[in-house]
Amino acid sequence: MKKLCCIGHITLDKIITPEREVYMPGGTAFYFAHGLCSLNPDANFELVTSIAETEMKSVDDIRARGAKVTVLPSRHTVFFENTYGTNQNNRKQRVLAKADPFTVKSLENIESDIYHLGSLLADDFSIEVFEMLSSKGTLSVDAQGYLREVRGDKVYAIDWKNKQDFLRYVDILKVNEFEIEALTGHTECEKAAVQLAKWGVKEVCITLGSYGSVIFDNDKFYNIKAFPPKAVIDATGCGDTYSTGYLYKRASGEGIYESGQFAAAMSTLKLEHSGPFNKTEADVYALIQKYQG
């Protein structure tokens, strides 16, 4: 298996649903690390995060699961408030605190085959970071942070400033059905994916919530069906879980369709509870087999 490195802030999240209100760690870094540790505790994986000293327990918990974690000190921890209605595909967000951004200097000694940048806010990673990491390995990016603008404490959807300059360095881009319209102006997955590919992205992964996902690579579309959950409990982190499963399988040498199907099944199992994915690789394949048989 190739080495995987996820870089991103661990957050403090307040999650409000019609059933409950909870505080817990979050962010791409948190969901990716825990998900990967559940899939394979011995995976060739490193987490790089930036967090305030007050939230170091989140890092200690990940290290206790066997993962290598590099911590870059930050004055603050990112603090998100996520509010969901009865439709878990939609959420409202507020940002109550921001952490320090990642820099070329802080990341120049990090070595990996695949880098996944879990952007939460537009200034988390500069274009210089994209350029440096893409020169050292495969660069995977979650676009969500670059499409968020904080005004006061509220989060608004915006276009990605200078997106074409950034995207030419990106090998794998994860976006959802709302982000593709903000990025490309297209609501149709196929048109949006083709446009993103023209800007330089090699693999475009578009997640569509309960409608599945679409992956575009080398002029070929892969349509991945969603797996029905036993219950819809908490969608927070499902997109990050999808990236975890997809990159884990790509790093293991699996093809695009197989990796996308694994990611979709993994996301369904995560949707059935609050917190990060906590099942096994065997559980994911059991769900796939259930609907293939």
The total of helices stands at 10
Mean pLDDT: 93
State the end-to-end CA separation.
29 Å
The rough form would be described as globular
Instruction: Give the percentage of residues in beta strands.
Output: 25-35%
Helix content: 25-40%
Structure description:
Strand 4 (45-51), helix 2 (56-64) and strand 5 form a beta-alpha-beta unit. Helix 1 crosses helix 8 (238-251) and helix 9 (256-271) crosses helix 10 (281-292). 47% of the residues are buried. The chain has 293 residues and is α/β, with parallel strands linked by helices. It is built from ten helices and 15 strands. The protein starts with a strand and ends with a helix. The protein has helices spanning 28-39, 56-64, 104-107, 127-134, 163-167, 177-184, 189-198, 238-251, 256-271, 281-292; strands at residues 4-7, 11-16, 21-26, 45-51, 68-73, 78-84, 91-97, 114-118, 138-142, 148-151, 154-157, 172-176, 203-207, 213-217, 220-224. The longest helix is centred in the last third of the chain and has 16 residues, at 256-271. Helix content is 33%, strand content 28%. It has a nine-stranded mixed sheet with strand order 5-4-1-8-9-12-13-14-15, sandwiched between helices. It has a four-stranded mixed sheet with strand order 3-2-6-7. It comes from Candidatus Limisoma faecipullorum. InterPro entries: PfkB_dom, Ribokinase-like. Residues 161-278 form the Carbohydrate kinase PfkB domain. This is Ribokinase. Keywords: Kinase, Transferase.
